[in-house]
């Protein structure tokens, strides 16, 4: 009886894993996209230029779409930076912050201009990074890493649907 159970579980496991698509979620007719300047609902200066550049770079590096102007594009990635949260991530023995975690949140939409419809939309997509609490210049590096992660999340969702 135990052998029959194991064989049955193995068959079910294989059947469950037998379908996997690598085709992604990007509709076939979308070959180009525009990335207009993100909006900023925070007090952080220059962040919209930085996130827009990171998203453009992520689209180019992914290679599934080319970046063109908004009026020539098949789709548009639009976004708004809605929050930036800094907080201690780790403490020393004497309870002083050693690392800070910075999180950047964005509301993002991927819009199909050819079919005039939203393909996906998500609020509070997060990119984050840790930085050294003792180094005042490390915050800027933390923001840059968080924006890079955020851009990758946006493009992964756009191309893969994840």
Question: How would you characterize this protein structure?
Answer:
The protein is α/β, with parallel strands linked by helices and 162 residues long. The chain has one domain (27-160): Rossmann fold (3-Layer(aba) Sandwich), CATH 3.40.50.10610. It contains three helices and six strands; from the N terminus they run H-E-E-H-E-E-E-E-H. Strands 1, 2, 3, 4, 5 and 6 form a six-stranded mixed beta sheet that branches. Helix 2 (47-62) packs across helix 3 (138-160).
- The domain tally reads 1
Predict the CATH topology.
Answer: Rossmann fold
Q: Class by helix and strand content? A: alpha/beta
| Helix percent band | 25-40%
Q: Unreliable segments (pLDDT under 50, ≥5 consecutive)?
A: 14-23
What is the top-level CATH class?
Answer: Alpha Beta
Overall strand count: 6
CATH architecture: 3-Layer(aba) Sandwich
Radius of gyration: 21 Å
In CATH terms, the superfamily is ABC-type transport auxiliary lipoprotein component
Shape: elongated
What summary fits the major beta sheet?
Answer: 6 strands, mixed
Order of helices and strands: HEEHEEEEH
DSSP summary: helix tally: 3
What share of the residues does DSSP label as strand, in percent?
25-35%
Mean pLDDT: 88
Distance between the termini: 40 Å
Please describe the topology of this protein:
Layout: H1 2-17, E1 32-34, E2 39-40, H2 47-62, E3 66-67, E4 75-91, E5 97-112, E6 117-132, H3 138-160
Parallel strand pairs: 1-3, 1-4, 2-4
Antiparallel strand pairs: 4-5, 5-6
Helix pairs in contact: 2-3
Quickly describe the structure:
By secondary structure, the chain is α/β, with parallel strands linked by helices. The chain has helices at 2-17, 47-62, 138-160, and strands at 32-34, 39-40, 66-67, 75-91, 97-112, 117-132. The chain is elongated and about 60 Å long.
